[in-house]
Each structure stands twice: as structure tokens, then as C-alpha cells.
Amino acid sequence: MALKRWFCTLALIGPFGAVPALAAETTTAPGQRTTIYVQITDSHLIFFNGNTLPRGVIVTFEAINQGKQTHNFSIFGRSTPVLKPGTRAKLTVTLVKRGLFGYKCTINAHGKLFHGLFAVT
């Protein structure tokens, strides 16, 4: 049975606080594949099409570094390679557990500003 869900993305902007980004509608079901685009700049990380998916979905996070510094994207204990400015990388995982899971940039001290939670329902 497909789940239909509305969700809102949050951009975590360090000293500027959290700012809502896009609201979108998605229909996903266990076993389906989807892609979530993650924009990385020197001041924030933004999920462009959602930060909530149901358990069992196969998700590819496509991280795009649009900043001037090197970054990466780490979630579920896995990380993209180091992304130089203007590069991108994909990270594919199957969502097997329900809960809230942290994501962050693991380069230097970036994780203090570049972090947040991803929900698996």
C-alpha cells in the first residue's frame, strides 16, 4: 500500500537558525526507489525534496557541493567521498528501521553547523 505524505524540508543555517525550504508531496511504498537531492553550500545543507520517507524505500541521496569549501554528506553510518566545490556524489541506502537519524558533514568541524535529522516512518 503506497503512503502519501506531505512534508517540509528544513535548511539548518547555523547561527541564523532553521529556515523552511520546500514543501512537497510524495507517494512512496516499500521497495520503491527515490532520489533526494541535498544542496550543500558554505552555510547550510538543504534537502530539496523531503526529509521523511517510509521504511523499506530505497533512497539515493545525491549531494551537490555548491560552496567554495570541501564538504561531504554522512547519514546511516555511511558517507559520500569528499566533495570539492562544484562536484556531486550519490549515496544509496535501503531504509530498514523506523526512527530519526542524524545527518551531517564530517569534514573538520563542519558537523557543528551542517547537521539535522532524517525521519523514517
Which structural traits does this protein have?
121 residues; Immunoglobulin-like; four-stranded mixed β-sheet; 11 strands; 0% helix; globular
Summarize the structure.
This protein is an all-beta fold and 121 residues long. The chain has strands at residues 3-12, 18-28, 33-40, 45-47, 52-53, 58-65, 74-75, 78-79, 88-94, 99-104, 115-120. It has one domain (3-120): Immunoglobulin-like.
Q: Which radius of gyration do the C-alpha atoms yield?
A: 14 Å
Classification by helices and strands? mainly beta
Question: Could you say what the CATH architecture is?
Answer: Sandwich
Residue-averaged pLDDT: 76
Annotated CATH homologous superfamily? Cupredoxins -  blue copper proteins
**Which quaternary structure do these chains form?**
single chain
SSE string: EEEEEEEEEEE
- Discrete helix count: 0
Beta strand count: 11
Task: Report strand order across the widest sheet.
Answer: 5-11-10-7-8
Mass-distribution shape: globular
Walkthrough of the structure:
- By secondary structure, the chain is mostly beta strands.
- It has a single domain, classed as Cupredoxins -  blue copper proteins (Immunoglobulin-like, Sandwich), CATH 2.60.40.
- Helices cover 0% and strands 54% of the residues.
- The chain has strands at residues 3-12, 18-28, 33-40, 45-47, 52-53, 58-65, 74-75, 78-79, 88-94, 99-104, 115-120.
- β3 and β4 form a beta hairpin.
- The two termini are 14 Å apart.
